[in-house]
Write a structure and sequence with these properties.
This protein has about 120 residues and is an alpha+beta fold. About 20% of the residues lie in helices and about 35% in strands. A five-stranded mixed β-sheet has the order 1-2-3-5-4. Strand 1 and strand 2 form a beta hairpin. The protein is globular and about 50 Å long.
């Protein structure tokens, strides 16, 4: 299978071509200070009208003139839908799964969103 055939096969397996980019229309709903990072509750549009809630963890000291690398963390729910992305952000659930908060404390900007 050549590169173009592989790409087409991959897109077919993912359900077809990716949607066209659109404005994110991002909004910050709430912000609070956590241990070593700032936690922001945000929403943005992945497609027009398709609003995605997420948490963004920003390490202390990171601002526009002091950038940091970023990581996306997708959460599992294991049937615990009431916890969701809050567990990775370190505000609910088992501390063993507070991965996003730990990454932010080590200098990474982390976006935590739902996997689906």
């Amino acid at each position: 299978m050549n590169r173009d055939e592989f790409r087409q096969h991959l897109l077919d397996c993912l359900g077809g071509p990716f949607p066209e980019p659109c404005p994110l229309n991002a909004r910050t709903l709430d912000t609070w200070q956590a241990d070593g990072c700032r936690l922001e509750s945000v929403v943005y549009e992945s497609e027009p009208g398709d609003v995605v809630p997420a948490h963004v963890l920003v390490p202390d000291g990171v601002e526009g003139d002091h950038p940091a690398p970023g990581i996306v963390c997708l959460h599992q729910h294991a049937g615990q839908y009431h916890i969701g992305k809050s567990e990775l952000a370190g505000v609910a659930g088992d501390p063993m799964h507070h991965t996003g908060k730990l990454l932010a404390q080590h200098g990474y900007i982390v976006r935590v969103a739902e996997a689906s």
